[in-house]
């Protein structure tokens, strides 16, 4: 268990106002837009995973849009240290792109694990995606590999690779962006369902947490199949307002998720969060397996033992039977209604608290 200092000293309770029981007017559905890029780099306007048009930029222009380490490798043919990352030995299925311009370079089935300590490939995805020139620097005769779209240095080509080509594209990892296949991503994802009062607050905070790929507001527990918001608000269905979190276990874990959960709300008030009263607002974790249950119970026991809260924690641990997504207007509520009084007075302080207490767990804390 990680140290509890994250919330022993900073677990301040919020006074909540009612989350509103009337259904707001539904806004017109926004049209879905297809993004051009698989990878988004707002700081680099020249980056595209689909545009193959030749780029001709000055060194000064590249320096403005590339991170320093990538700039030195891509524009000055620097070489990163071997074995400096996991990419050289990764066998995850996906696609590799030029990190400077987004040009598609390799597929994972063209990659092999080499003992050299750099990402190695035996074939490029498109014969036109990389071009080559002699490199006689450092008293050696080598073949330099460059991106055909932006002329960025990628690495070198050697004749000691495996069949069927016998080639080894020895690439700098910093010169590559990697996007795992959708099936690969889906296979890695896990879900977690819990509730602690109004789901607008919970969704707003966990949407900002690293490793969390999706958050859906909804309902769980109770006796009514697929209940509506109005039915849940009566308190007679037994269902609770909850969120379903989809997360990548390689980036975050149950311990971190539970720590944020217990910091975000008051787990000592029975069927109540501030002015929101009823079983639908209970503090609850819907576990899907024994690991989730044991880890939650262990943290609850430790919090109670250390008297982090003045009163005993009343969070219930209930088996998850079914999760029902809430109505569309509840999804992304804070993001779409930031100026409304409830969002300003209740949701925003929770988001700001998360950003302060768990700043190292916030998404995109550094510009990429």
From TrEMBL:
Q: Which InterPro entries match?
A: Met_Sox_Rdtase_MsrA_dom (IPR002569), Met_Sox_Rdtase_MsrA_sf (IPR036509), Met_Sox_Rdtase_MsrB_dom (IPR002579), Mss4-like_sf (IPR011057)
A Pfam family annotated for this chain is PMSR
Gene3D superfamilies xref list: Peptide methionine sulfoxide reductase, Peptide methionine sulphoxide reductase MsrA
- Which keywords does the record carry? Metal-binding, Multifunctional enzyme, Oxidoreductase, Signal, Zinc
- In its UniProt entry, the species of origin is given as Flavobacterium stagni
Gene Ontology biological process? response to oxidative stress
The enzyme's main class, written as a single word, is oxidoreductase
Cofactor(s) the protein requires to work: Zn(2+)
Q: What is the name of the gene encoding this protein?
A: msrA
Catalytic residues identified in the record: 198
Question: Which top-rank group of organisms is this from?
Answer: Bacteria
What is the protein name given in its UniProt record? Answer: Peptide methionine sulfoxide reductase MsrA
Molecular function as annotated in GO: L-methionine:thioredoxin-disulfide S-oxidoreductase activity; metal ion binding; peptide-methionine (R)-S-oxide reductase activity; peptide-methionine (S)-S-oxide reductase activity
Query: Residue ranges of the MsrB domain?
Result: 59-181
Q: Which reaction does it catalyse?
A: L-methionyl-[protein] + [thioredoxin]-disulfide + H2O = L-methionyl-(R)-S-oxide-[protein] + [thioredoxin]-dithiol; L-methionyl-[protein] + [thioredoxin]-disulfide + H2O = L-methionyl-(S)-S-oxide-[protein] + [thioredoxin]-dithiol; [thioredoxin]-disulfide + L-methionine + H2O = L-methionine (S)-S-oxide + [thioredoxin]-dithiol
Which region is the signal sequence? 1-20
What NCBIfam families does this protein map onto? msrA, peptide-methionine (R)-S-oxide reductase MsrB, PRK05550.1
